[in-house]
């Protein structure tokens, strides 16, 4: 979701190469619906998880996010999203590993689908492969 990252420029992707599923924190959990549509209905064969340094999702906890919503939008809005997990992260590399594990546990993701994880360094424009 980060506005500093333009996938076509950062990763050399051109029109027709890939489905880009973006969300706050690059969450596979949040993206699962789109991942399944991409694979099962549209035939993609690989999943590449990319998170990045300097991510806003590193800067708050679930409790802090809920407190901000409550303060800004009031108790009705706060109650409506009381069980929402904002999916904050504390370490991009570990979050990539967690998402890979999450996807590997999904019966809806076939075992022959290649999944890789990367961290994009906004400071340098380089990507690190996460084992
Ligand atoms: Zn981010």
Automatic annotation (TrEMBL):
Keyword GTP-binding on entry: no
Transmembrane portions of the chain: none
Record text on cofactor binding: Binds 1 zinc ion per subunit.
Source organism, top-level taxon: Eukaryota
Reactions performed catalytically: hydrogencarbonate + H(+) = CO2 + H2O
EC id: 4.2.1.1
Its biological purpose: Reversible hydration of carbon dioxide.
Name of the molecule in the record: Carbonic anhydrase
Source organism: Coniella lustricola
Taxonomic lineage of the native organism: Eukaryota, Fungi, Dikarya, Ascomycota, Pezizomycotina
């Amino acid at each position: 979701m980060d506005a500093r990252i333009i996938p076509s420029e950062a990763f050399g992707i051109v029109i027709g190469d890939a489905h880009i599923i973006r969300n706050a924190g690059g969450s596979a959990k949040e993206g699962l619906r789109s991942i399944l549509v991409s694979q099962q209905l549209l035939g993609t064969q690989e999943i590449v998880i990319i998170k990045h340094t300097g991510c806003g999702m590193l800067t708050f906890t679930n409790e802090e996010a809920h407190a901000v919503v409550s303060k800004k939008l009031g108790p009705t809005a706060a109650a409506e999203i009381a069980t929402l997990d904002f999916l904050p992260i504390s370490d991009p590399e570990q979050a990539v590993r967690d998402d890979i594990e999450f996807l590997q546990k999904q019966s809806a993701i076939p075992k022959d689908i290649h999944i890789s994880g990367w961290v994009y360094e906004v400071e340098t424009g380089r990507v690190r492969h996460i084992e």
